[in-house]
Amino acid sequence: MKKKTNTLLILALIVGLAFHGSAIFFTLEYTYDALIHLFFADHYADSWFDPWEYRWYTGFTVQSYPPLVHQVIGILSYIGGLKFGMYTVALIAIVLFITGAYRYTLLMTGSRRIAGYGAVLAVFSSTFVETLHIFGQLPSVSALSILLHSMTEIYLWIKTGKTRYFFTSASMLAVTVTSHHVTPLFGMVFFIAPLIGMAVMDASREKVDSYKALSFKVFWATTLQHFWRIAKFGFTGIFLLVFCIFPYWYNSKRNPITQVSIPHGSRDNFLEITSSGLVFFIIPWGVFLFVLPYFFYRYFSKRYIFFGLSFTLLTILGTGGTTPIPLMMLGETAFNILTLDRFTLWATIMALPIFAEFGYRMVEGDLKTLVQQKFGAVYHRVLGGLIAGGMLFMVLFTMTLGYFRPSQPAKIKMLPIVNFLGADSHDAWRYLPLGFGDQMAWLSAQTKAMTVDGNYHSARRLPELTTRAIERIENSKFRGVEGIGSLQQFLTVPEKYNLKYIFSNDKFYDPILYYCGWQRLQQLENGIMVWEKLNVAPIPQIMPKQDVPTIMKIMWGIIPLSTVLIAFFINIQMIWVRLLKSRKIEEHSFRKLELPYNKFPRKLLIFSHFWAFIVLLCLAYGIYLFYIKNVAQHSANNVVESYYDALDFKEFSRAHSYLDPESNVTIAQYMLEVSVTDGILSSYAKMDSLGIEIYDETKNSAKAKVATRWITPLENVFHNDYHELVKKDNKWYIKPSKFDNDIPPDQLFTANSTTYYNHGRRKITTQETYHEDVLKQPVLEILSAKLVKYKGQYSVIGELQNVDNTPADVVIKATLYNDLNKELANYNAKHQIKHKLMPKETTTFKINFEGIAWSSTKDTLPPTFDPDQFTPVSFEEQPTKFNLQSAGNIANTDLYKHVALQDLEYTEQGFNGVLFNSGVQEVTIPQLIVSYYDSDNKLLWVDHKFVPEGVRIQRKQFFNYKPLELDSLEIINSSLDNCFVNGLPNKAIADKIFPNRKLIHGKQQTQPFKGKGYDYLKFEINSYIGNPK
Amino acid sequence: MRIKILIVLTLILVSCSSKEEKLKPIIEPQIELVPLTNNFIAGDTISLLFKTDTVVSNLKLRLKNAFGNVLLNHLKINSDIIAFKFPMSYSRLAGPCHWKVIQEEKTLLKGKLNISTNKAKETHIESYFGPRSVTAGYNDYSMLTIAPTDVYDNPLDDQTPVTVKYQFLENISELNIETKNFIAWYNVRATTKSGRILVSSECNSTTSKELTTIVYPSNATGFSISASSAHNFADGNQILTLKSDIIKDEFDNVVSDGTLVTFVIRNEKNAHLYTIGTTLGGIAEARTLHPDKASRWEIQAFVTGAAESNVTEFSFTPAIKDYPVYFSKGNRNIDIGPFESFMKQLVPDGILLQLDIYDENGAFIETKKTTTKDGVCNIFLGEYFLPSGTYTLKFKAAGISKEFTKNIHDN
């Protein structure tokens, strides 16, 4: 028989390259992982042999991920840049995958025709589309493709024992190992083990006449016969796995992953969290779901029995948390580290040859005959059309998922940021991007500057990050209170990480930045706001680095690419021959095992129909549920949910459409009213949960109590609202609520104020500090300081004043010691302080000690982080002394002080007060800092409250504050001895600048109020302005 | 076969390593310094010549001065004389310079050169002045530090005369000081007047750049305040302006702009309210809103810790005398108003009305708040909120309380 080029394979390659090759340019950069690999590639392009990467996580080693794909991109980047390298590798991966699927199908079925089908179906398999175009897992795809290629070789080695096949298989396995570690590790178990089983089975089959005659005894005998080949290969496989990426294992041993488990959708219960079910089950399986009975039928035939077991296992493991089985099988640790979607990926790839076989039988084989015979030719055509259509639909659906439901923020122009970091030594400090999504990796790849964040959480070393189940600090808001809590630690003690600049692409984080003492620097031309923190030292010239033996560096730098070269040279001849058909090669033995396919089992056909019907039913029910839940005005519950959803996403015209049309609130009026409401809830909150209680429901009316929980950057806000609902023309509506009618007396106001400007450097010079341009640090005076214990928690409280003539930015750090002067903890004042002080302004402050002395407190960390219920540091010893270091730097922004306390009244519900904004800036979030004093007017405690609504210009805002009970408060130490200002002792400053301080002023400015454990109160106001004018 | 070749190749590659070096016998030459002077001036070209019996290549000169160490190779002049030429960075640095002739690790000869400051060429002045701001009065000062150097940045010898000049307002003072331990310094004391002090210095007819310190005013002293408004009716809408006179320090300087002044308001219920102003030209101005009920405010301002003002009083007379309340729709709909102000005009929008609801037994249920619009306001007690029954309703607005006991029912 003359060998012809397989037209289906050629077709698959052309279509695959054209389709995936052009699509990647629109998808790959928006995927979760691709840019991370790009960053790693940049590392290799920059320093091939040095595995230490300073730019993420205050330094980590790239030996924590197999390097091949990164190194290839890195090498190619010398030709056309990093992105060129990435796309080239992606194109290679596509070709390898299609040809790999072809060879794997050929091996499994023995038929070139079916293998052609396999190649075509591989192009359109939704699991491949998802892995490449949504997840961007380049190393995983490449490794899997090469694994598929190697399978034929492994089979032939086991079967024939020819040395040539041993080398080809080993060389390919080595490439797999260096591109991705998990693929060969599990591939050994799930792919290679059943493959060896099948090879032995085939060898046994040759000994007897039929599969019927193939008994276990025969199989066992054959296994023993092949034992040395299997053992040789097995040991080689393990050796390669260990040797090729030995530095990786070495590193894993040295830096074991301490990261607490980060929730991943693939571990969810797919029935509960349907979005995870869609992404990790429905999409990868796609049309395969309908053909499942056939897969099991075929895989549990004698030849494939081992694949059948493996396939079943993979299918079950891929269901994540839907059933308890994966957890039981993998154990707690593995379950929480592995992302289980890879099992589904492998299961669907494993099913590919059988699906190809099914396709072949359906299109031109015995199934066609059977269906036509039984149901008629039209039915066959319709059925075929449906399957093909379904497949195409899944591909298009998956491909466009990222377009309709973007998983990433809009593409950010990085050049202005890169330029900013490059200019004026800004890269001498660390930076932190906020709201960048996975694009942060692309930013990192383009600059030498370092960040405390990063996008490869297995390599994290900072305990602040490893003890938190957050992906990145950058998107901490999506991890709720825990994420925000982690972010706050970095913002409060930025000098620990030399963190000075923040690039904010998400206004959400602005309030917490302000309250942690950060200030806006400038808005870049791409709309990114740069925030900076004063009083942060630059990164030291010498940074800690974890070095590895030189041999490791050499291994890591040389082995991966060598495996590719070796594999290439060993296999080139075969490829050449196969490709050009230059000479006739002997048919492989598995080709003889091609089945005749002449009798499709009737029962299977009927069962398959039955199964498909059940799947369709489930699908229809799912869609119905989705519809009922999402039709906005279908029920009272839906309209409230939709209304709040619209408010949460700031779609005000949609929100207005749910309002009762007869209430005469025009859209213009509504938008106007909404636009003037400002505050933490309306501008900076993300709804976390929504509890709707519908009561008094009649046919046409109902009432709803809506309990909302909002995640704000500052703290959790619980809110209760009541709504009246009406039903008109079969649609439910909400009755609009009332707005404050307060109007200010005048339309035009004038106000004078002092403004400040700091030139920084007056001379245009690159010199570090031109001493003429060094501003004097404003002098502060600490008026009182105390170490107190309240509700089991230690805090340092106190009061300080800016005694200079220029406005000051205040940073204050407290350190606790025990009786033996052993340092126990240190922390900075977070938001219970006014960070910006005008001349002679005072502020009270409180410093809480959050558990950053992590190693010792790891056990005590609660599973979820609540910024209010933060983790107190656990002290082995009792703190008895403290040291306060405060530093002033000239501030020239955020000096708005014109919020007055206009009224205050004590009622049963606490203090009811009125704030009045007497200036010309709109205060978005007012914060009350409430201090408590004893009968001698000595400070006892400091508390705070964020007022949820803003104070508009020349208007008032009501607030309510419930005073605390301080009878359990214990003062441990009250002293000004170890207090320092700008490095100088506080006492010297007090004596020099305020020798005759009038202490009575303190008492005259406090509110007498007899409470539990205190006698005076003081309300201070700190205002955050969202849009300074 | 291919495999074998590969293995052999790898082995060859691995076994390649550098060859061992054999030790040469060391010949120790006899050397002596060709006498010269030991004193140089910074900037001179300095070469050390040595007479030697055998010229060996590994003879080196090690130099050590305040900057650090350097190893020099020799230049051969003729068969028995070798020379070492000092690099510029060593010949230009004043101070002792030690040298050693060494072979391998053995010192053969050593000595010391004295390089003195180059006074002949021009003098440079490095001067510092800080802190950049001081407080007016008698106990603050800025220090001017002058380090005159020669052209190679070597400090001039002690007792070099330096002239210091400083200017404040019309006065320009001048005085002569001398360097000691390489620097000359002078404390420029703060003046009692606020302003700017400029300083400069001169040495060997080279003048320094201009340096400056700002004398900020000292702490504020007692001041007085006044309150003013368009009227004194408690309408909850007009703005009360509080203003200080020019706040000065003990030396009659106007306090620096931006000084924070807290105006503490004590009302008749002993609530301490406040509003904040920052000074501009010494005058602090702060505003707050009129209360919406009759009040007597006692106002005092503070520059915390330093100074306070007199206490001024401001009394608000009631603007709203009374307001009607109408019930309808089973007493669920309540219309309150019209609210009429002091000239019988409708009050400006936004007067707060508070309704406290108690049940028959006097147990508190809830508070409802609303604001007036066009002089009236409306509260609807929906049945989801209040089931039918008898309730006590307490209204409070503009300091006027009203109480009703009503049966609330659905029509």
Main features:
heterodimer, A: 1029 residues, alpha+beta, Nuclear Transport Factor 2, Chain: A, 4 domains, six-stranded mixed beta sheet, five-stranded mixed beta sheet, 28 strands, B: 411 residues, mainly beta, Immunoglobulin-like, eight-stranded mixed beta sheet, 2 helices, 4% helix, elongated
Task: Note down, in words, how this protein is organized.
The complex is a heterodimer of chains A (1029) and B (411). Chain A is an alpha+beta fold and 1029 residues long. In chain A, 45% of the residues lie in helices and 18% in strands. In chain A, the strands form seven sheets. In chain A, strands 14, 15, 16, 18, 25 and 26 form a six-stranded mixed beta sheet that branches. In chain A, helix 3 (68-109) packs parallel to helix 15 and helix 8 runs antiparallel to helix 13 (305-317). Chain A is globular. Chain B folds into four domains: 31-116, Immunoglobulin-like (Sandwich), CATH 2.60.40; 124-216, Immunoglobulins (Immunoglobulin-like, Sandwich); 225-318, Immunoglobulin-like, CATH 2.60.40.10; 325-408, Immunoglobulin-like, CATH 2.60.40.10. Chain B contains two helices and 33 strands. In chain B, strand 32 (389-397) and strand 33 form a beta hairpin. Chain B is elongated and about 130 Å long. At the A-B interface, strand 19 and helix 31 of A face strand 22, strand 23, strand 24, strand 25 and strand 30 of B.
Quick structural summary:
Chain A has about 1050 residues and is an alpha+beta fold. Helix content of chain A is about 45%, strand content about 20%. Chain B has four domains: about 30-115, Immunoglobulin-like (Sandwich); about 125-215, Sandwich (Immunoglobulin-like), CATH 2.60.40.10; about 225-320, Sandwich (Immunoglobulin-like); about 325-410, Immunoglobulin-like, CATH 2.60.40.
